[in-house]
Design brief:
37% helix, 15% strand, Rossmann fold, 8-stranded mixed β-sheet, disordered N terminus
Length: 398
C-alpha cells in the first residue's frame, strides 16, 4: 500500500497544527417511530436552500461513551418545495466520512486542512459559491431530479461513524434506518416509500450506505458509495506502525496516551483515533476499560502483531463478507454504484476492485468506476454525478 507519505505528512502537520404531485404508494413498510419535532421551513423562497434541524434518536440514548442522542441534521430543500406546496419529493440521504461531521459538504475549511495535511495531488473541488448554489445548479442545469437531501451528523467521540449498531457507541444503523427516516417523513413533504429513497456516502459513510442498503432494501432501494472504506490486515499493520510513532510525538508535546476527542477543525491523533473508533464499532468490549473495545494488534519488542481472532471478527464485517451474507438484499436494490481512485492514499482501491469482482461473480447488477485520483479527488463532481443518476432512477409515478 502506498500509504507512508500520506500518513507521515498528515500526522506531522497535525502535531504542529414542475408542480405535479408525485403519486404516493398505497402502503409503506414500517421504518420505526419517532417523536415528532417540527422542522421550521422558511416561507417565500424561490431557490433551493439548506435548513438545519435536530433530531432526538432513541437509538443513541444511553451509549457508554456519552455521545449525544440529539443530532444536528442539515436538509437541502429544492426550489419547488417552496413554489409548489402540494408537491412531494424523493429523498437522498448522505452519510459523511472524514472529515467527520454533518456539515462536511458545506464548509470548505476542513477540506483545505486535509489538502495541506495529506499532501493531496489536488484540492477538493469545492464550489466557489458554496454547496447550495452547487446543488441548485445540479437540479436546474445538470439534469438532477429535484430531491430532498438529508445530511446527518453522525460523528463519534473519536471520529467518523461506521453506521453500525454498537454496544459501546449506540445504534447508529438504527438511528439512520429508523429514527431519521421516520423523522424526515413525518416533518417534510417526502414520498415515504423505499422506491423514492436513496442512501449515499463517502469513505466510512460509503461503507455505511452500502451496508444499510443491502440490509434494509425495504427502506432504501438505491445506493451510491464514493470510495467505500475497507480495513484489511495490511491497513491495521500500517495503523499500528504509525500509531506508535504518533503516540511518541504527541506525548513529547505533553498529550496523554491513547485517542483524543475528535474535532474536524483541530489536530487529532489520526492513527490512534482510527484504531479505537473502528474498535468501538467492530470489536466492542465493555469489560475492557477505559475505551471499552479491543484493538486487533499488540506490540512485541516494538513491532506490531496482528491478533488473528480479532482480525477475523473485523473481516466478517467488511463489505465483501457482508455482500455474501446479504446477497438477497443486494439483489433487491434498483441501483448500486460505487467508485474509487486508483491512487487512493488510504489503500482502498484494491479492496474495492475485489468487491467489484465479487459482485460480478455473483451476477449482481452494479456499476463500479475507477478514476485517476485520490480519496478526495473530484469529490463534488463524483457526488453530483451519482446524485443525478440515482435521482433519475426514481419512478416518475407509482
Amino acid at each position: 500500500m502506498k500509504t507512508k507519505s500520506f500518513f507521515y505528512v498528515l500526522m506531522m502537520v497535525f502535531f504542529v497544527m414542475a408542480c405535479q404531485q408525485d403519486l404516493l404508494p398505497d402502503e409503506e413498510p414500517a421504518v420505526g417511530t419517532q417523536t415528532k419535532s417540527a422542522i421550521i421551513v422558511p416561507q417565500g423562497l424561490t431557490e433551493g436552500t439548506v435548513i438545519t434541524t435536530q433530531v432526538h434518536s432513541p437509538s443513541l440514548e444511553g451509549n457508554l461513551v456519552g455521545d449525544p442522542a440529539l443530532r444536528n441534521v442539515a436538509v437541502y430543500l429544492p426550489k419547488s418545495y417552496f413554489s409548489c406546496p402540494e408537491k412531494r419529493f424523493p429523498v437522498i440521504y448522505f452519510l459523511h466520512g472524514m472529515p467527520a461531521w454533518g456539515n462536511m459538504l458545506m464548509e470548505k475549511a476542513p477540506f483545505d486542512n486535509f489538502f495541506t495535511y495529506a499532501n493531496l495531488a489536488a484540492p477538493v473541488d469545492f464550489s466557489q459559491d458554496g454547496f447550495v448554489q452547487w446543488a441548485n445548479r445540479l437540479m436546474s442545469e445538470a439534469g438532477m431530479r429535484e430531491s430532498i437531501i438529508v445530511m446527518p451528523d453522525a460523528r463519534t467521540l473519536f471520529g467518523p461513524s461506521m453506521y453500525l449498531n454498537s454496544d459501546i457507541l449506540g445504534n447508529y444503523e438504527d438511528f439512520i434506518v429508523n429514527d431519521l427516516t421516520a423523522f424526515i417523513d413525518e416533518n417534510l413533504r417526502t414520498i415515504p416509500h423505499f422506491n423514492w429513497r436513496a442512501i449515499t456516502g463517502h469513505c466510512a459513510g460509503a461503507y455505511g450506505a452500502f451496508n444499510m442498503g443491502m440490509r434494509h432494501a425495504r427502506v432504501f432501494r438505491y445506493v451510491g458509495a464514493l470510495s467505500p472504506a475497507h480495513f484489511m490486515e495490511a491497513h491495521f499493520e500500517q495503523i499500528a506502525i504509525y500509531s506508535a510513532y504518533e503516540e511518541m510525538i504527541w506525548q513529547e508535546q505533553g498529550a496523554p496516551a491513547g485517542p483524543l476527542p475528535y474535532s474536524p477543525m483541530e489536530p487529532f491523533k489520526f492513527m490512534t483515533n482510527t484504531a479505537y473508533a473502528l474498535g468501538q464499532f467492530w470489536l466492542p468490549n465493555p469489560d475492557n476499560p477505559p475505551y471499552l473495545c479491543d484493538i486487533p494488534y499488540t506490540y512485541v519488542e516494538g513491532q506490531p502483531q496482528i491478533d488473528p481472532d480479532l482480525m477475523a471478527k473485523i473481516d466478517s464485517q467488511n463489505l465483501m463478507a457482508l455482500s455474501r451474507e446479504y446477497e438477497r438484499g443486494l439483489r433487491q436494490l434498483k441501483s448500486i454504484y460505487f467508485d474509487c481512485g486508483k491512487n487512493d492514499e488510504l489503500g482502498m482501491y484494491l479492496p474495492n476492485e475485489m468487491l467489484h469482482q465479487q459482485l460480478t461473480d455473483l451476477h449482481i447488477k452494479h456499476q463500479f468506476e475507477s478514476y485517476d485520483g485520490t480519496h478526495l479527488s473530484s469529490l463534488y463532481n463524483r457526488l453530483g454525478k451519482v446524485w443525478t443518476a440515482l435521482s433519475n432512477d426514481f419512478p416518475t409515478e407509482e
